[in-house]
């Protein structure tokens, strides 16, 4: 009778130690408060029935950071957000090194995004080097820097950062209209500069062609008049109106 009871108790303990584990899952095993290992194998598993088993998902997770308001390198207020893909790599660190690793990753992601935004200017400008990376134009470099910083910050929690992407980037509402007008003005100036450079090149080629082919001989005053007329025609944003000059440049 006693033997039957002991066998039943032993069988019950054995059954208590059985559990199912799905792919990309792990169990943290602790025995009387001491970490004894991690089970990463899938299927029907068994562990010491006296051991505590904590389930940890090893699947990739998405973190959509909220819109964060921060000043860029120039001091302009901007709004920025990012989507981050991460997963638990070291289960022991995730459980024992930090408290609530999901919350830890969220806080570190927001901190990294804030720090990153202060390292780059939102857009190009005269006060920046031509090759300097900006948030708007150099998102590939910005994302690489974000992933590297996130990985460094989350390593303590046993988390691997797989991917990141900037999902929102804009000037803060209070300066958005002003900065839009500034961008439009810079675009107009840049376009005008290219038009003038192209017009000067075309005028130079026209004068050189007339001189080399000896189509007409022009003195300095006529060359100046021709240059003026061609530049007006080429740089104007309106169609030129043909005028027949029946007079002469000389009195």
Q: Structural class of the helix and strand makeup?
A: alpha+beta
| Ends distance | 138 Å
DSSP strand (E) fraction? 15-25%
Low-confidence stretches: none
Helix content: 40-55%
Mean pLDDT, nearest integer? Answer: 82
Helix segment tally: 6
Number of domains: 3
| Topology, number of strands | 9
State the fourth-level CATH superfamily of the largest domain: Band 7 domain
Which features would summarize this protein structure in a list?
24% strand, 3 domains, 4-stranded antiparallel beta sheet, 6 helices, 3-stranded antiparallel beta sheet, Tetrahydropterin Synthase, Chain A
Question: What's this entry about, in short?
Answer:
This protein has helices at residues 2-16, 91-96, 101-119, 139-154, 173-213, 220-235, and strands at residues 18-21, 25-31, 34-39, 43-46, 52-57, 61-64, 68-71, 77-88, 159-171. The protein has 251 residues and is of the alpha+beta class.
Could you please describe the fold and organization of this structure?
- There is one protein chain.
- This protein has 251 residues and is α+β, with helices and mostly antiparallel strands.
- The model has no long low-confidence stretch (mean pLDDT 82).
- Helix 5 (173-213) packs antiparallel against helix 6.
- It is rod-shaped and about 130 Å long.
- Strands 6, 7, 8 and 9 form a four-stranded antiparallel beta sheet that branches.
- The chain has helices at residues 2-16, 91-96, 101-119, 139-154, 173-213, 220-235; strands at 18-21, 25-31, 34-39, 43-46, 52-57, 61-64, 68-71, 77-88, 159-171.
- It has three domains: 2-56, no CATH class; 61-171, Band 7 domain (Tetrahydropterin Synthase, Chain A); 185-235, no CATH class.
- The chain has six helices and nine strands.
């Amino acid at each position: 009778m006693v033997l039957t009871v002991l066998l039943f108790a032993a069988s019950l303990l054995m059954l208590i130690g059985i559990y199912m584990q799905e792919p990309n899952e792990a169990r943290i095993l602790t025995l009387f408060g001491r970490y004894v290992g991690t089970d990463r194998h899938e299927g029907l598993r068994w562990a010491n029935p006296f051991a505590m088993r904590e389930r940890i998902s090893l699947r990739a997770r998405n973190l959509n950071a909220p819109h964060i308001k921060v000043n860029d390198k120039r001091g302009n207020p901007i709004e920025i957000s990012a989507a981050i893909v991460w997963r638990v790599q070291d289960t022991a660190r995730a459980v024992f090194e930090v408290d609530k690793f999901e919350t830890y990753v969220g806080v570190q992601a927001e901190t990294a995004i804030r720090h990153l935004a202060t390292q780059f200017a939102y857009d190009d400008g005269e006060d920046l080097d031509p090759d300097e990376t900006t948030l708007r134009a150099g998102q590939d470099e910005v994302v690489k820097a974000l992933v590297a910083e996130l990985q460094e910050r989350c390593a303590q929690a046993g988390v691997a950062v797989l991917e990141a992407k900037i999902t929102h980037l804009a000037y803060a509402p209070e300066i958005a209209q002003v900065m839009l007008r500034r961008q439009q003005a810079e675009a107009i100036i840049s376009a005008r500069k290219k038009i003038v450079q192209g017009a000067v090149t075309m005028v130079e080629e026209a004068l050189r062609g007339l001189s080399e082919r000896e189509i007409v001989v022009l003195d300095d005053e006529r060359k100046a008049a021709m240059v003026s007329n061609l530049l007006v025609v080429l740089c104007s944003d309106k169609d030129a109106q043909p005028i027949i000059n029946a007079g002469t440049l000389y009195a």
